[in-house]
TrEMBL record:
GO terms for cellular component: cytosol. Its cofactor is Mg(2+). This is dITP/XTP pyrophosphatase. The gene is rdgB. SUPFAM superfamilies: ITPase-like (SSF52972).
Length: 207
């Protein structure tokens, strides 16, 4: 199917996770390159959904490298906020990537919301683009969710983003207290990437 693929991120954790998932699902070795390996340009994420932003990044990476590309976009959707912060999760406080400021603002906004109404979900869309399919290759899209509820204070040292205030369903601890392996097994990103890998395996078998 392919021996090399680029993932539109500089996150080494994502690289390792994707390599393991592709190896397990496709049953073949795949070399995963990141944005740091191939110097991908920055992409303006002006889509209005996770899937749209992921596709923008995947198409840019595929066009820039000529290699099959995968990108994902994710965020936190809070029920009582109508799905916000959503695609604005990384810059909810007004400063992109300031995790502490983001979750502190969110906790302040939810201060008066009782525990039984603090449901939320991490959402992820993963998109695959193969530039070898022609000038307008089809986007293969898979999505994943991790449901849970929001606590009232940050707990835990692992993970990133809103993990310290998110309690996954079925767990008494936060996502920031889970090990990387435990989190990947239930996470929105892990689910989306495993589903995407299965779609790619089905495409490969049918070609």
């Amino acid at each position: 199917m392919f021996e090399r693929i680029v993932i539109a991120t500089r996150n080494e954790g994502k690289r390792k996770e994707l390599e393991e998932i592709l190896r397990d699902v496709l049953d073949l070795p795949v070399t995963v390159l990141t944005a740091a390996d191939v110097d991908l340009p920055e992409v303006v994420e002006d889509g209005v959904t996770f899937a749209a932003n992921a596709e923008l990044k995947a198409r840019s990476a595929a066009a820039h490298t000529g290699l099959p590309a995968i990108a994902d976009d994710s965020g936190l959707a809070v029920d009582v906020l109508g799905g916000a912060p959503g695609i604005f999760s990384a810059r909810w406080s007004g400063r992109h990537g300031d995790d502490v400021a983001n979750y502190e603002l969110l906790l302040a906004q939810l201060a008066d919301v009782p525990d039984e109404h603090r449901q939320a979900a991490f959402c992820c869309a993963a998109v695959f683009i193969d530039p070898n399919e022609g000038p307008a290759p089809e986007a293969v899209v898979a999505e994943g969710r991790m449901t849970g509820r929001l606590g009232r204070e940050p707990i835990g040292e692992h993970g990133f983003g809103y993990d310290p205030i998110f309690h996954p369903d079925g767990h008494d601890i936060t996502a920031a207290q889970l090990s990387a392996g435990e989190k990947n097994a239930i996470s929105h990103r892990g689910k989306a990437l495993r589903s995407l890998a299965q779609l790619l395996a089905a495409r490969s078998a049918g070609s």
